[in-house]
Amino acid sequence: MRYLTAGESHGKQLTTIIEGIPSNMPLVKEDINASLLRRQKGHGRGKRMQIEKDLADITSGVRHGYTLGSPIALVIHNDDFKHWTDIMGDDPIADDQKIRRAVSRPRPGHADLNGALKYGHRDMRNVLERSSARETAARVAAGAVAKTLLKQLGIEVVGYVKEIAGIRAKDNPSLTMKERFDMQEASPVRTLDKTVEKQMMEAIDQAKKDGDSIGGVCEVYVEGMPAGVGSYVHYDRKLDGRIAGSVASINAFKGVEFGIGFEAARKNGSEVHDEIAWNELGGYYRKTNRLGGFEGGMTTGMPIVVRGVMKPIPTLYKPLQSVDIETKEPFHASIERSDSCAVPAASVVMEHVVAFELARTLLEQFPNDQFSKLQKAVADYREEIRCF
Ligand SMILES: Cc1cc2nc3c(=O)[nH]c(=O)nc-3n(C[C@H](O)[C@H](O)[C@H](O)COP(=O)(O)O)c2cc1C
Ligand SMILES: C=C(O[C@@H]1CC(C(=O)O)=C[C@@H](OP(=O)(O)O)[C@H]1O)C(=O)O
């Protein structure tokens, strides 16, 4: 199972193609659209989100509410394109027009300069349009299909905000999956800790007032994954490694940790590892989950707990200095619009990229062309490990 996305931020549309979803799995566009809508919300988003109404159209691979086993294509239109037709249209334009419109001022913290150097683009719009986090809408669409598959296998995934600008939400490991989902949905900053919500919003408002931006930490929590998914035999089959790679690939994400994460560096082994226990009903389990659901690149059967760090948004109203690639003169960029904090939206993106890696790895471990056979294979495996 894999996916590709295409599309520029202010181009006509985003396209996602997913390959490898088994046939006869129930899938309707409402499942995808609910996820897309969640990604658009959150305190701190800029004006662009008021323009877009992200809705996916399933253009192939699904018929009458069931997958066909063929590639699934999803399309999300950019409503903003109508304001950008002269800049983003596909009709050729005269060279003098091209030069006049070219973006020659790279923004620190963005892909602009490195992308220009790599691809030889003197107009950095050719870089920034694709490197924009607009693309995360297409990734959420792919993840929503993965989430639909996981849900029907009894696996649920939810993302929320743990921290914004150093303001931390308290841990509450006893929350159920439903409580986690409902709480992040009800919160304007997608946090599960009501007591810090207001402070987080104030920090976002203050950053905006100061012309600055702030980052934070998102957490994804997964229940229902059986033990032994992933592998220890090769680096690229380790599921925690796959998840870490996909989280670090989200725009502006700079770090990933599982369970107690970086804290493990400061603790003794006896305070880090999770002792193994057994009972007749469920088989093996752990009394603690400090390692966040992974040992040896495989799931332990405990909830997966993974966190990702998002740096502050690089576009600042109080802009940083840069150098014009044509004149080589220093400048301070002028800004039209930007998010001041996208951590709440990014928690939804993270939820969906994690879901995709889980579904991909499950399908690799239980390869089946038909969804009912996948369900049976996973159910048989669950029973096998319960009795092991
Ligand atoms: C949901 C989301 C929204 C974002 N919105 C903005 C934005 O409005 N302005 C901006 O400068 N960067 C924004 N970013 C971050 C940039 O896309 C990102 O920093 C840039 O592509 C460079 O990639 P890197 O930070 O991973 O190196 C956003 C990221 C995410 C995940
Ligand atoms: C469009 C989205 O996020 C965009 C990500 C982004 C960036 O530089 O990454 C910059 C902003 O876009 P614009 O330059 O059009 O205002 C955000 O709005 C989205 O999340 O759908």
UniProtKB/TrEMBL annotation:
Gene, per the UniProt record: aroC2
Cofactor(s) named in the record: FMNH2
Residues binding FMN, per UniProt: 130-132, 251-252, 296, 311-315, 337
Biological process, per Gene Ontology: amino acid biosynthetic process; aromatic amino acid family biosynthetic process; chorismate biosynthetic process
Example of a GO MF term: chorismate synthase activity
Cofactor note: Reduced FMN (FMNH(2)).
Keywords: Amino-acid biosynthesis, Aromatic amino acid biosynthesis, FAD, Flavoprotein, FMN, Lyase, NADP
UniProt cross-references to NCBIfam families, sorted A to Z: aroC, PRK05382.1
Catalytic activity, EC: 4.2.3.5
Family per record: Belongs to the chorismate synthase family.
Name of the protein in its database record: Chorismate synthase
Native organism taxonomy: Bacteria, Bacillati, Bacillota, Bacilli, Bacillales
Binding site for NADP(+): 39, 45
Signal peptide residue numbers: none
One GO term describing the cellular component: cytosol
Involved pathway(s): Metabolic intermediate biosynthesis; chorismate biosynthesis; chorismate from D-erythrose 4-phosphate and phosphoenolpyruvate: step 7/7
Catalytic reaction(s) noted: 5-O-(1-carboxyvinyl)-3-phosphoshikimate = chorismate + phosphate
A Pfam family this chain is assigned to: Chorismate_synt
InterPro entries, per the entry: Chorismate_synth (IPR000453), Chorismate_synth_AroC_sf (IPR035904), Chorismate_synthase_CS (IPR020541)
Domain of life the protein comes from: Bacteria
Assembly notes: Homotetramer.
Physiological role: This reaction introduces a second double bond into the aromatic ring system.
